[in-house]
Structures are given as structure tokens and as C-alpha cells.
Give the backbone structure.
Amino acid sequence: MVSKVRTFKSEKGLSQDAGTYRRGELRGIIRINEEVCVGCDTCRGVCPADAIEGSVGEKHKINLDKCVVCGQCLINCPFDAVEQMSFVEDVLPKLKDKQTKVVAIVAPAVRVAIAEEFGAKPGTLALGRLWVALKKAGFEIYDNNFAADQTILEEGTELLARIAAHAGLKELPVYLWDKKLVLEVEEYKHKPLPQFTSCCPAWVRYVELYYPDLIPYLSTCKSPQQMAGATAKTYGAKDVWKVAVEKVYTVGVMPCTAKIFEAFRPEFNSAGKYHKNESIRDVDAVLTTRDLAEIFRRLNIDFMSLPEERDPKNFMWYSGGATIFGVSGGVMEAAIRFAFHVLSGKEPSPTASEWEFHDVRGLTNPVVRATVTIPLRPEYQKVFNDKVIRLKVCVVNGIGHNGAHLKPVVEEVLRGKSPYQFIEVMTCPGGCINGGGQPKQAMSIGFIQKIFYKLGRA
């Protein structure tokens, strides 16, 4: 059973820089309702950024300048005292406006969580129902998995280019789709290793606030949400839907509250630059999984009665590598599959065990380390002077309280002692599937008793 999360209406971006926020960004996406907070201190124990202020028994509040907007405080609050900014009231009028093409950019973790909002068991896969419901509501669908595949093409290529550049190469031949491409990699010798993933917006803000020296280590790739928004308003508007870009309204549907923050970062207006109108944002609004369920309820869409129909077209096609972005270790495994394909010359097979990289999956371990041995095609054996390449990787499965899981990995990198070439960081334990925008499990009576015992000892 899920519990209701309190929301408040969306606000405008800042008119000027304030604290750790820039002009245009949203400040205060997550906040604690002090009338409801009992000071149980649960939120402090799950905050990765030490952004919660208040002692046991006192009303707590969030230090917004330290907050990375991951929403772990919200999803774990046993008294439902943490609230979230919502764009439901912004999106509903757009859906009713027949002149507007409202495009839902739907993340992979949403399809296995949305049904919980309507009484299904946790983990119920409802992709077909979700697509039918979105169409019934009036959305055009851009599956974010389509953009995740683009992300891995870019991020995986960037990783190979950095490795090649640090091996002293100026060019790297890449064989894709029976074509030979030659990457000029010399410019990457100035980009350090290990390369960190960049698709988790809470992690990116964490780096900016707490480890700015790590910024050059981040992949230069946008997240799938932001790639989707930009392509929807350029290629999508012009060549797929054939409508004026001003009529396209893009809505991220995400398991994550930090994605709300990400969409309003001032640099994410690539479509506006393309159309020479910088007021055009790549993503106009973001709904959490919970918010989308609320949209369906407001429109009287009986989600669980809908058929499991899947009729993909245009931006609804994707690979299995994109789907696993929703769990910790998934981005890493997708990148390794790409590197394995390029470097070995082998074609992917959905049934061959050599394409399953279990050692990098996050699951319940806070930090996962692995060495992946990839056989090299003859052309690369000459390049790397070896028959195999050993890719050393690390997955941080949740930053942990006050950075507990992350710090040893990061400090090793900053000391120049890291053995890895690629590191994935997901702020939330388990990855996006456990994001701050997912259905919130109701608190058990046993947990309430523990809280009161804790208060009694204070």
C-alpha cells in the first residue's frame, strides 16, 4: 500500500543567483512541513548531503543550499512530513489544449512502479497499460529508453576515446553498423580518467557542491531526459510530428525529484539555440511517477482496467541496455556492452551469457568493483599491443548518509590512486527504481513503535 505525498504548486525559476542556485533554477523543490514533522530524525539518516537541520524531537528543516534534491528524505519520512513541488496543475491545461502537442518523456523505472499507485504489487510491469493510459490522457510518447540508447552511444564512445588518448593514440578506428569510423581522440588526453557517469542529476549537483575538482572527470553527456527534450523539439517537431516547435510541450515523467531541478538548469535550452529562440526550454515540466498517477486520477482513467497493449513507433523503440538504466549498475552494464561490441567485434545476443555482466550490478552492495576482460578484434590488438583489454570499473550504489559510500572512492580518485577507468554513481540506493519520485510505501505500525521508542530515549 502506498501513502499520499503532499505537494505544492510549481514556482518560477529564480530571477537572480541565490546561494548555491543560479538564475532560472528552482530553489526548494523538496521541503519539510514543520506542522507535520515530529522530529523523528529519520530524514537526517538517509540524507547524502548532510542537508537536514534539527535534533531529535525538534522540527527539522532542509538547508536548501546543501540539498541535492534526491528526495530520499521524502520517500523515507515515516510521518509524510516532506513535501514536493508538483507540475500537475501546469500539465493538465496543456493536455486540454488541442493546439498543443504534449510529449511525455517516460523513464524506464516508471513502468515498474506506476501500477503500485493503483493497488498492484510492487514491481508490477505495466508498460502496455502505461502507454495506453498516456495516449488516453492526450500525451504523445517519447520513451526515455530511446534517449538512453543515445546516451550510451555517446558516453561509451567518450569512454573509449579517453582510454585510447591516455594510451597515447591520436586516432581510434571504431566499427559500427558495418562501417569504419575514425575518432580523433587527441583532445581527450586532457580529459582525466576515471570517467564518471553524468545521468544522475543529484550526483552532478553533489559534485558541483562538494567535489568541484571532479567536474572534469564527469562524462560530458547530457542525461537521457535532456537528450530527449532537445531531440523532441528539433527532429521530433520538424520531421516526426511536423508541428511548430512552439506547439510542443515536453514533460519528463521521472522516478526522481532531482530531475525537476535538472530540467530548469539554465544551460538546457539546446532546442532554443537551434531555433534561435533561447526562451524555448528542452524540457518544460517534470512529473514524478506519483504525479503522473494523479494526472490519471484527475482524468478518470481507470489504470488497472486498461489492456497491456504495446504498439511502438517513432521514439518508442529501444534496446534492453536502455531499460537497465533504471537500476544501479545498469548504466555501467550498458556501457560495457557497448564497449564489448565495439572492441571485440562480436554482435550482441539476447541469449548469450557473455553479454550478461553480473559483476557490475549494484543490487544491495553499496560499492561494487569489477574487472571486465574484453577480447580485442585483430585491429585493436595492434593498437593496444595485447589480445584483451581489462576494464576496471566501480559502481556506487547510493551515495550513503553524508557521502559514506562515495567518499572512499572519490578521495582515491583525487589522490591520483584510483585503479578504475569508469565509475557509475547513483545517489539513491538501488538507483532510479528507488528514486524520490516513486510511490511511497506506507509506514508500518512496527516502524511507528520504533520511532516512539527512539523519541522516548532522547
